[in-house]
Amino acid sequence: MATECKNCPLHTKDLFVSLKPEQLAEMQRFKVGELSIDPGTPLLMEGSNSPQLFTALRGMGLRYKTLQDGRRQVINLVFPGDFIGLQAGVMKEMKHSVEATTHMTLCVFDRGEFWNFFRNNPERGFDMTWLAAVEEHLLGESLATIGQRTASEAIAWTLLRIYRRGEAVGLVTNGHMPMPYKQQDLADCLGLSLVHTNKTLGRLRERQIVSWSEGQLQINDMESLAELAKDDGEPMPKRPLM
Amino acid sequence: MATECKNCPLHTKDLFVSLKPEQLAEMQRFKVGELSIDPGTPLLMEGSNSPQLFTALRGMGLRYKTLQDGRRQVINLVFPGDFIGLQAGVMKEMKHSVEATTHMTLCVFDRGEFWNFFRNNPERGFDMTWLAAVEEHLLGESLATIGQRTASEAIAWTLLRIYRRGEAVGLVTNGHMPMPYKQQDLADCLGLSLVHTNKTLGRLRERQIVSWSEGQLQINDMESLAELAKDDGEPMPKRPLM
DNA sequence: CGGTTGTTTGACGCCCTTCAACGAGCGTGG
DNA sequence: CCACGCTCGTTGAAGGGCGTCAAACAACCG
């Protein structure tokens, strides 16, 4: 039973810019269905030319690239509200892969209608650009993290960002944030080895700053964490929802 | 004396998707002037809310972010054809800084007209999204480089990419590519220390793979370079020109 | 109960950083 | 004209953060 756009659980969250009723109707027309996938399922593959675009409705995943020798770089994590497949939408093919970490449900859009949608809804087209610009900005921050921050800074920064994003979409309850990823995923986010990631996490736990176990992330000392992360304290940028 | 869009030296390069005459005319209308700046001049500052957008017409520069403790991460290099300021165009402010490395001349667009332009030219709006998606893709590749490649791989990869991009916009003559950056810039691109960058470059030079001196980049052994860089050999993605 | 996946811990070593110093090129001013 | 300062490239030495190797442990499952 597909969710109707006007009942979308996301578009009321204040992370997203609010949509006018007619825009919701437009999205409803653009939306061709809903997809539900199990943990571990690949959604889009590097080099594929998917006929579909998605926005994550529920669940979490990750986008990654693999070098030819098998090393993997996680580009970013996929949260509810993320738009997936823009690259396939405008370029010929995907340049990275996307896979589900938890069970996910996604709104499905028809790529063939993408251009029509864009032409008929310039406001939404603008929002698409906006979205891409936000993505670009976030990747720039990740670059700065991997390039400049030490392992503990980087891990602190990443956990903080995950927590905040989770808060913004209502995933946090009682200070508990679902954290379904593996340590290996976090390591591949940051270009660190699994072992070093593990030990650094252990140190953060000992210092009572964050605890991450059994798929739950908890922040025990927000102040120390933000300081360690060298977070610049800028609020999470608002973004459109597709 | 401003360059007219229809005489733009760039839009015939095959890196860019070609523009129809009426699109050129539209760009001409959107363009409010031309800016010429000296090496070292900051063009956009992090946190600024610039009223202008640019596309680089001639010259080279770089985009970077600085952490609060002064560490700098170069997000990417700016080449002719790059569109600058999209973030300020859709979000409130710039999230990184841009500065000129060589003398640069840029086409200037009025940010206030951005939305109108977008609405009146859905095709160009689409191209804007396309551009942002290309940027995002390139940042993803940089992430993989910084995160996964070793210093010599990363440096090889970066030099190779610079050379190819230079070729694509006609900057290479006789196998010589202008390389106006400092070693510190390259180091800040890759999250490496200046010293290590220098020594790694020296090793590449000794092995007769690339030589970079006096602002000129030369590739002596393209095959070895591509192999070292673990380049996946995909062609440079075509992109729109604004 | 063996097999698998993910976390944890220890030992060892290297890639890379940091500190330090020197040289080359160049513009400035005495 | 040369001394001086500044920037940038280069090189050596020392140390540490992080990677690699290896193994043990816990949880889950057929």
Automatic annotation (TrEMBL), chains A, B:
Pfam family, one: HTH_Crp_2
Domain of life: Bacteria
CDD domains: CAP_ED
Record has Transmembrane helix as a keyword: no
Keyword GTP-binding: no
Domain HTH crp-type: 149-223
SUPFAM superfamilies assigned to the protein according to its UniProt record, in alphabetical order: cAMP-binding domain-like, Winged helix' DNA-binding domain
Gene Ontology MF terms in the entry: DNA binding
Name this protein carries in UniProt: CRP-like cAMP-binding protein
